[in-house]
């Protein structure tokens, strides 16, 4: 009997020793208790939940080294590995989950148009439903603050920079000739259809060290990773036709889009200030192939387009007008791969090639140019944790340009070859949900100039409240002079800007407000001593022109943006305003002055309203820009006079005939404002010593568009409202 009692006592003693109490307290980084945190031993059912004081306690029979897991929503999960006997009276501090939706984002100088972004100023749908855009993604971006209205040009002019200072990338790879060629006072258009893109990032300044050769801005276009279904899109328009198709398989897909534009029927109905001997025609084809691989995604994108026309434009120096003809062929291909390498490493690589063949005729002058350009890029990224990531890479830009100039007295060829080798490195540090830093450096070596330019860049963001945050950005940016300069002179330097940006952003329940102040300082701008700004028209004068990079300038201003799509049912609208103060001493300027492409004030209002009973979406867009400088040779002041302000109201209407058929109408400048883009003065004075002038007016005061769009899809509900 005594032996039995002793055995029972020993078993009870052993049992008590086999149970270990695990206890402690869970706190946040401000030492405040966290209620409801889950605490458990990994791989077991032993655990507890913290109380209102953050305290927890439970027992376990596990022994030896164990992993104790502490987790709570919106905080990073913490794991403690130790002997189970040491899990007593713990003080556990959880850090905020910096990957949650309410974490601060770096927003200085950047506008997102992406359904997957934490903060999107625009959606992909906005790019093609803005009334004044006419289906061109650049047209929609021109309603954002930071851009200047240049209706006669059509390209992006950002914060005091000319159009050549903005570079465009598709899937991270450079596009060398992103706009269709044109002539004076006829706006260019982006070559690429929004049909194949689902994400756009528009940086008006302060962009990543990953991107170079851009003084003012970069525009990043991302093709669709994976289409949701097979479909065919058919469009019949007053100016041409479009056809698109998507095929989808288990691990791959293929999309193409083709369009043909011919303005001859339109000009038969509506007057045009130009006389066309050969009406404007353009054909375009695009294709994207995607293939899912074991650890990544491969994309192959190619595009071809052709533009052809001949016209006679009004010109004060030619009684019968100035004859101009253009025939352009452009081919672009882009292949890219992004994938996972393992151990938290990822890779992104790709290459692009551009072939552009352009034949221009100006009266008796024939100018034929060929550009072949390529971009090769490799980027590696290491994720050390959700709070610290490092990326670095290298890239090569290769450009070969040749031109032949022929007229009654000249037949000469010239050109250049330019190779730029660049490297970049950048780190993303998220200190907390309220504070984040991006810091990087970029180096560009130009074989042309035998020189290396190094540019540091940094951006800092601080979340000041639940819905508001501040951002700062600083950086140095370099860009070689454009082809029009390099074809005649290579003994130059890379142009440079230094940028400073302060941004405030507020986002709450479908409303977003942005205010941004900036300063840009320009150095090494191109100057020349020719009297002509159009170097094509007089080769003899151009050959004797002296070029240098001694120019400078500045641009500073404030951009404001407000968008609201929740206050009124079915109404979405945004307002943007920009104030720009800028001067340059570049080109053949005798003194520093505001350039003629910059306007001090730009204002846009865009509204879209859906009416269920009418199955219709109505859109309106009002654009205002203050007058731009022009030079009057009848005065002694340089670029001292201003055109009258620019005004335009555009309307559109999309009517759903049924779920997959849409009838679409739009009209630009519906009130017929008589806008003036500038003035041309005669080359010689009259008998009174005065130079006569002629106003540059748009080719048409208004533009009307009608289209029928039909989608044939698997689910029977998809339509092309997204593409209008």
Structure description:
The chain has 724 residues and is mainly beta. The chain is built from 6 helices and 38 strands. The strands form 6 sheets. The chain has a 22-stranded antiparallel beta barrel. A hairpin with a 3-residue loop joins β14 and β15. The longest helix has 17 residues, at 2-18. The chain is globular and about 110 Å long.
Give a quick summary of the entry.
The protein is mainly beta and 724 residues long. The protein is built from 6 helices and 38 strands.
Quickly list its features.
single chain, 724 residues, mainly beta, 22-stranded antiparallel barrel, five-stranded mixed sheet, 6% helix, 56% strand
Name the average pLDDT: 87
Give Rg in angstroms: 31 Å
Q: What is the strand tally?
A: 38
The general outline is globular
- The percent range for strand residues is over 45%
User: What are the low-pLDDT stretches, counting only 5+ consecutive residues below 50?
Assistant: 7-16, 113-120
Rounded to the nearest angstrom, the distance between the terminal CA atoms is 94 Å
Question: Structural class of the secondary elements?
Answer: mainly beta
Helix and strand arrangement:
Elements: H1 2-18, E1 20-27, E2 38-41, E3 47-49, E4 55-60, E5 65-71, E6 78-83, E7 90-93, E8 110-114, H2 124-129, H3 137-141, E9 166-170, E10 173-175, E11 197-203, E12 217-223, E13 231-237, E14 240-248, E15 252-262, H4 264-269, E16 275-293, E17 296-315, E18 318-342, E19 345-362, E20 365-385, E21 388-406, E22 411-432, E23 435-446, E24 451-463, E25 468-479, H5 483-486, E26 495-508, E27 511-528, H6 539-543, E28 547-564, E29 571-585, E30 601-611, E31 616-625, E32 629-630, E33 641-642, E34 646-658, E35 661-668, E36 678-681, E37 693-696, E38 703-713
Parallel strand pairs: 1-7, 9-12
Antiparallel strand pairs: 1-4, 2-3, 2-5, 5-6, 8-11, 9-10, 11-12, 13-14, 13-38, 14-15, 15-16, 16-17, 17-18, 18-19, 19-20, 20-21, 21-22, 22-23, 23-24, 24-25, 25-26, 26-27, 27-28, 28-29, 29-30, 30-31, 31-34, 32-33, 34-35, 35-38, 36-37
């Amino acid at each position: 009997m005594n032996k039995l009692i002793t055995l029972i006592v020993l078993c009870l003693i052993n049992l008590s020793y086999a149970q270990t109490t695990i206890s402690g307290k869970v706190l946040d980084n401000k030492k405040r208790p966290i209620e409801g945190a889950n605490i458990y031993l990994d791989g077991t059912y032993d655990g507890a939940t913290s109380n209102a004081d953050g305290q927890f306690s439970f027992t376990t029979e596990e022994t030896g080294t164990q992993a104790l897991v502490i987790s709570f929503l919106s905080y990073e999960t913490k794991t403690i590995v130790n002997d189970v006997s040491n899990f007593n009276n713990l003080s556990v501090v959880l850090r905020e989950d910096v990957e949650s939706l309410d974490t601060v984002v770096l927003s200085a100088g950047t506008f997102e148009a992406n359904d997957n972004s934490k903060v999107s100023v625009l959606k992909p749908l906005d790019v093609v439903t803005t009334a004044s855009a006419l289906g061109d993604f650049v047209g929609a971006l021109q309603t954002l603050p930071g851009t200047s209205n240049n209706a006669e040009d059509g390209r992006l002019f950002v914060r005091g920079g000319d159009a050549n200072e903005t570079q465009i990338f598709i899937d991270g790879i450079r596009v060398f000739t992103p706009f269709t060629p044109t002539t004076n006072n006829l706006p260019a258009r982006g070559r690429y259809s929004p049909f194949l893109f689902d994400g756009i990032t528009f940086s008006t300044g302060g962009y990543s060290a990953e991107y170079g050769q851009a003084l003012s801005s970069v525009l990043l276009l991302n093709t669709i990773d994976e289409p949701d279904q097979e479909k065919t899109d058919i469009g019949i328009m007053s100016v041409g036709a479009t056809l698109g198709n998507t095929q989808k398989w288990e691990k791959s897909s293929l999309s193409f889009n083709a369009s043909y534009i011919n303005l001859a029927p339109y000009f038969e109905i509506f007057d045009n200030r130009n006389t066309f001997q050969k009406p404007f025609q353009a054909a375009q084809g695009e294709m994207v192939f995607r293939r899912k691989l074991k650890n990544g995604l491969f994309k192959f994108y190619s595009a071809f387009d052709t533009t052809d026309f001949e016209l006679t434009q009004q010109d004060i120096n030619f009684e019968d007008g100035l004859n101009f003809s253009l025939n352009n062929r452009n081919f672009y291909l882009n292949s890219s791969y992004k994938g996972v390498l393992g151990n938290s490493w990822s890779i992104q690589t790709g290459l692009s090639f551009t072939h552009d063949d352009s034949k221009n005729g100006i009266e008796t002058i024939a100018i034929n140019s060929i550009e072949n350009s390529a971009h090769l890029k490799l980027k590696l990224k290491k994720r050390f944790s959700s709070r610290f990531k490092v990326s670095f890479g290298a890239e090569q830009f290769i450009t070969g340009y040749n031109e032949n100039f022929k007229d009654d007295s000249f037949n000469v060829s010239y050109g250049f070859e330019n190779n730029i080798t660049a490297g970049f490195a950048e780190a993303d540090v998220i200190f907390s949900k309220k504070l984040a830093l991006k810091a990087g450096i970029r180096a560009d070596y130009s074989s042309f100039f035998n020189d290396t330019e190094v540019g540091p860049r940094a951006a800092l963001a601080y979340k000041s409240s639940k819905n508001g945050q501040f951002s700062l950005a600083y950086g140095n940016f370099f860009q070689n002079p454009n082809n029009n300069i390099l074809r005649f002179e290579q003994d130059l330097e890379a142009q440079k800007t230094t940028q400073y940006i302060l941004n405030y952003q507020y986002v709450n329940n479908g409303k977003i407000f942005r205010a941004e102040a900036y300063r840009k300082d320009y150095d090494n701008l191109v100057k020349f001593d020719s009297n002509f700004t159009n170097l094509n028209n007089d080769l003899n004068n151009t050959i004797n022109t002296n070029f240098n990079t001694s120019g400078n300038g500045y641009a500073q201003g404030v951009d404001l943006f407000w968008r609201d799509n929740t206050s009124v049912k079915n109404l979405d609208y945004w307002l943007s305003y920009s104030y720009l103060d800028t001067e340059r001493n570049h080109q053949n300027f005798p003194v520093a002055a505001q350039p003629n492409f910059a306007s001090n004030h730009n204002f846009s209002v865009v509204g879209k309203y859906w009416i269920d009973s009418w199955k219709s979406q109505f859109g309106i867009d009002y654009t205002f820009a203050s007058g731009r400088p022009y030079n009057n040779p009848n005065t002694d002041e340089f670029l001292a006079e201003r055109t009258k302000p620019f005004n335009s109201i555009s309307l559109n209407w999309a009517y759903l005939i049924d779920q997959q058929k849409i009838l679409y109408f739009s009209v630009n400048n519906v009130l017929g404002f008589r806008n003036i883009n500038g003035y041309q003065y005669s080359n010689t004075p009259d008998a009174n010593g005065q130079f006569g002038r002629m106003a540059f007016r748009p080719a048409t005061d208004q533009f009307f568009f009608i289209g029928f769009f039909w989608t044939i899809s698997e689910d029977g509900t998809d339509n092309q409202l997204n593409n209008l």
